[in-house]
Structure to design on (252 residues):
């Protein structure tokens, strides 16, 4: 930010830049420290359970995985809307910080002209808009978990229905069906946990995009590179230091 031109800082809001340095960086750190490890563990568990279930009974496994395309469609499509809403929340938070920064940095002017009520009204308006954006993002996140649970319930019902038919026909024992249902719960649980990480992931992605916008911004004023001739050494290229001798004037 310090290397960018003054024209960029004239257009950018100081509060938004502060929000990028603090909140967006914190969102990325939270995902790296907690969400990334959890996502890796759940992914490995999911692939491991799929392999075990394919070895036990590939028919049951294919039926259980028949809902996977719908599940992944919900998990990957819904976060796009969540990310868009999270980006709006971050923008509103930056505007709130900008209002606070402007009011506090010019507090002498505010008190001199009795602008306290005006600044309070500005803060209330920005805060209300931020709350509305946060509620919209929260409503989108709240829809994801029930949708995943419904899809998982549909997959479990299909497995139970197919397994009950095989038990009634005598081709499968009831104990084998119970064991497979236990494996099924172990396979669906990582899917549910991964869907819960969409909130942390969307915040990290939005934070990375907002930080990248600043890092990718080119300065309008570029410093000319300083070239030193090859035959000039580092000692001779530096400016010589001269000492000034101060002589005391003589009195006549």
């Amino acid at each position: 930010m310090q290397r960018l031109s003054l024209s960029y800082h004239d257009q950018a809001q100081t509060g938004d830049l502060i929000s990028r340095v603090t909140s967006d960086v914190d969102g990325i750190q939270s995902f790296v420290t907690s969400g990334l490890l959890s996502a890796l563990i759940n992914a490995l568990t999911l692939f491991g359970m799929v392999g075990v279930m394919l070895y036990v009974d590939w028919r049951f496994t294919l039926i259980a995985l028949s809902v996977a395309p719908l599940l992944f469609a919900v998990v990957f499509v819904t976060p796009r809307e969540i990310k868009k809403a999270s980006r709006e929340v971050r923008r509103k938070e930056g505007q709130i910080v900008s209002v606070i920064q402007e009011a506090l940095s010019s507090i002498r002017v505010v008190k001199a002209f009795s602008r306290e009520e005006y600044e309070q009204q500005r803060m209330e308006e920005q805060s209300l808009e931020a709350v509305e954006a946060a509620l919209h993002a929260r409503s989108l996140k709240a829809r994801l978990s029930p949708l995943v649970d419904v899809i998982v319930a549909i997959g479990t019902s299909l497995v139970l229905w197919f397994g009950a038919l095989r038990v009634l026909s005598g081709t499968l024992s009831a104990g084998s069906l119970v064991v497979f249902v236990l494996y099924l719960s172990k396979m669906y649980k990582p899917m549910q946990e991964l869907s819960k990480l969409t909130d942390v992931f969307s915040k990290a992605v939005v934070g990375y995009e907002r930080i990248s916008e600043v890092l990718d911004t080119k300065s309008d004023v570029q410093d000319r590179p300083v070239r030193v001739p090859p035959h000039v050494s580092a000692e001779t290229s530096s400016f010589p230091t001269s000492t000034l001798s101060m002589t005391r004037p003589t009195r006549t």
About this structure: The two ends are 60 Å apart (CA to CA). Residues 5 and 229 are 29 Å apart (CA to CA).
